[in-house]
Amino acid sequence: MDNFHKSYFETPGVVKVWMFGTWEYSISNAEYARKVFTQSDVYQKVSPMDLILGSLGPLVVGKSLIFENGHTYRGHRTVVNPAFRRAWPTQLFKKLLIDMVEFMEDEADKPLHVLPMLYRVTIDVLGHIIMGYSFDALRNPGNHKTAMYDSLVDAIVGPVYSILPWPDKFPMGERAKQWKALDKYHAFIEGMIDDKLAESENSPALTEEERNNANLLTLLLGSYIMTKSGKSNSLSYVVLELARHPEIQQKARDIVISVIGDTRDAYPNNDQIKEIRETLRKTPIVTDIRRRLSEPVQFGPYSLPKGAVVIVDTWLMHYNPASFHEPEKFIPEPFVDDKSTDVKNVAPFTFTSFSNGARQCMGMKLSLIEQRIAIALLLLRFEWTLPANSPFWRSTPTTPAGLVMPVGLIVDLKRRH
Ligand code: HEM
Known about the structure:
With about 425 residues, this protein is an alpha+beta fold. The protein is about 50% helix and about 10% strand. A hairpin with a 2-residue loop joins strand 6 and strand 7. The longest helix has 29 residues. The site of protoporphyrin IX containing FE has 22 residues, from helix 11, helix 12, strand 5 and helix 16.
């Protein structure tokens, strides 16, 4: 990693890369990132559907607020804002997260495949909290909704079709099944919207705005759950880093126990959950934050023309030694004082896992709270380590660019209670 990235940091912070049949400009320093994040009219969102024409992956994301600009974006945002501006009491997650640790207790003493298990928890939690729908993925992984979900996630993360989208014109074998899953998924989301509408009509207390809210949210989060699953990926990285660093695992456990006690029914409240952002620094889940220029801009010595695509490369940002001391190491301390959404001990615009500025991730608070509770419960109920022959001791196998995840991560779990 050191050598691979070195040349990037010796440049003035802009690297020209050939991607999706065109040159794009990848940036790695906080000064340029600040420009991108604070001038959203100049640095405009790019839809993956425009980058990889005709490929299945971007169609799963579909038309979504995440990739809109200008009026359309502001309109959608006004509608969904109230749903995200709420508090997220830890009790909201209790049933499903306790279910997760109890499921894991049943599985303890066997090797645990972390990523698939956490995927299932994520769709259960987001389905329950945001969509009011039970996927029952954790306890009943073979059910057809979960299979549809798995198939679409595979369709998105498979790298071949992003580079060579034309075979998607004649899909065969597994790919043909994935296209079918997309049809089922659209039907499922539309059915869910109809149900929500019917519910709202039967409930006169709902205002027009609340009704729209429910629909948009369902659409937005339906595609969000299917495509990102960022939470399960980032939680998997927390599990991985704590397995690699038993001394930090124990220190974190001691803190959890000192705050909420060491009983099987201990559960944190909102004031008691602590920071976990260093894993998202070391292994950011969304690798590229992409924008198209609506006018020419200057980055140091480089003039970039209108229409050029600029990428805030989260991995380069987080491995830039000018921003993070010893970036290859896992050092949680700089993030620990964080009390709210701001990261106080880390310089502005250097930590970009959730993007920044007006287009920062709307699910950040929800996601961090849920992950913090989950990790507190894991620390209380288990001790875990990597098997002696695990490749994760030496490196972190991931998927390629776009969305990263620790593919094939297995840990040995031991129950504590
Ligand atoms: C660890 C988990 C997550 C990570 C790392 C993450 C990361 C990101 C990033 C980097 C962006 C900016 C994308 C861009 O500008 O191209 C984004 C946007 C967004 N995220 Fe997340 N996200 C996570 C979880 C969630 C969750 C759970 C939700 C919803 C429940 C969510 C909802 C959104 C929305 C709505 C936007 C678009 C915001 C806008 O454009 O105004 N995210 N996320």
